[in-house]
Amino acid sequence: MTETLQFTRQLSDHRVSAEQRAAILADPGFGNYFTDHTAVVDYKVDAAGIGGWSNARVEPYGPILMDPAAAVLHYGQEIFEGMKAYRHADGSVWTFRPEANAVRFNKSAVRLALPELPEGVFVDSLRELVAVDKDWIPSGDGAALYLRPFMIATEAFLGVRPAREVSYRVIASPAGNYFGGELKPVPIWLSTRYARAGHGGTGEAKCGGNYAASLAAQLEAEAHGCKQVLFLDPTNDNAVEELGGMNIFFVFADGTLVTPELNGNILHGVTRSSIIQLAKDRGLQVQERKITIDEWREGIAGGRIAEVFACGTAAVITPIGELKTEDGSMVSPPLGADAVCMSIRRQLLGIQTGVEEDIHGWLTRLA
Ligand SMILES: *Cc1c(COP(=O)(O)O)cnc(C)c1O
Questions:
Q1: Residues where N6-(pyridoxal phosphate)lysine occurs (predicted)?
Q2: Is any atom of ligand 1 closer than 6 Å to the C-beta of 241?
């Protein structure tokens, strides 16, 4: 789909003073503050049963007026995306592989019986929002403007069928260095009580429901001193799937990278696919295959697994120092100065922030 729409602009006053904004940008954390505007496109199915997108606009940020019977509030018909806009040293603003997010957004839309959005409209909506809110892009090390496109079923109707009125929106939130300052390996919790996805379910769609379903496991994790949860596929020899919102990689002692194959349960991470490419560029072997929790345990015990890390847009690459489980813990070896995950992380972040060459043409200019 290459269809485009013209966005109109209704601009607001700044919601906070320049001094308040500067204070926020100095230490934004993640997901706490939002910019002055939002991009919106409406979708409606007409009396003849033909659906179409219209009324593309940038408007002031604020609450959404919605009927209490709106389908999203009852049946969770919702999808989202997550990406970042980076300010480069020359002041220009770029985002990373937005076409890949647009394609994934439409894959999620099909699974949740929501309408597909033309890819051009998806990328334009980011550009339109960033154009009016670029004062909100932080410039600290590892900082960026987090962009959150999402689509919700707004039709007021309690019958169970795909909604005929839908709203697509983008909000933006300044984000600091995800882990603040230094990057140290994190412990994660192995959930054996809960699964994240099932075969034929919504595991590879980026939908709110998957996150709602992961929260009980996250509470369990927090009770064990962990912020993130690893999920397995109990119907497939306890194959490792992914974390609640990040994909996972193993670096073997011989330099081979192993990551779970995309089997329908796992999210097609843009960071995951970029790491695979950068590893291959370095001549490393990459295997997308099933890896079970037993192979992980034996790999750690036998010294075959050298590094374990998680990846996603928010935190880029996070080394996993320890997997805590109901019956004991598996501790990863300490990371050496030449750790593969840290080197790939530097390169990937360098491409995104404009200090490393964009050899694959992954960047798109937004402003
Ligand atoms: C968004 C997400 C990821 C990471 O995807 P990226 O495109 O790399 O940000 C991984 N797993 C889940 C479940 C996600 O929702």
A1: 206
A2: no
Cβ of 245 below 6 Å from ligand 1: yes
Is the beta carbon of 269 within 6 A of some atom in ligand 1? yes
Domains for the chain: give ranges and CATH numbers: 8-175 (3.30.470.10), 186-353 (3.20.10.10)
What are the pLDDT digits (tens) for 218-272? 999 999 999 999 999 999 999 999 999 999 999 999 999 999 999 999 999 999 9
C-alpha count within 13 angstroms, C-beta hemisphere, residue 78: 19
Question: Are 287 and 261 within 8 A, CB to CB?
Answer: no
Closest CA to 78 of 52, 47, 44, 105: 105
User: pTM for this one?
Assistant: 0.96
Is it the case that residue 210 has pLDDT exceeding 60? yes
> What pLDDT is attached to residue 181?
59
Q: Report pLDDT for 183.
A: 81
* Mean pLDDT to the nearest integer, 63-80: 97
79 CB under 6 A from ligand 1?
no
Does residue 1 carry a pLDDT above 50? no
Using most ligand atoms within 8 A of CB, pick from 233, 247, 265, 268 the residue to mutate for ligand 1. Answer: 247
